User: Fold this.
Amino acid sequence: MDDLSAAGLAAAASAALIQAMVSDVWLNVKDHAARILGRDETESMVRADRVLEDSRERVLTASPDRRDTASALEAARWKGRLQARLEEDPDFAVAIRELVAAVRAAGEGVDQSTTVQQNVTAGRDSYTAGRDLTVGRPDPAP
Assistant:
């Protein structure tokens, strides 16, 4: 697997792991992730489970104003781990794709809404939307 493909897949998988860690689907995903990361070897699975839980704990115990930073840091750690493993074992890509699919499937039906705060400074008009938006200027009065 080339570096770019490994990096993209590792980034997607790490983001999926962090998303699962902070949601209601974690218990459904954790065992699957530990099995994949531990290569179905009992001792390795136990270690992987512990590393996953430690990572989750670092995110969840971060203060609310630091949670995004903690999540980004953990995602970067997982991306590095997964990318190294993908470069070492290209067949690992299949398992990682399955993990990403499992996280997505586990999250279906779970409220995945989020809050976004935007601060906009504009010299003229400024528009923002979470969905479809049609922008036009009113016709000048005749």
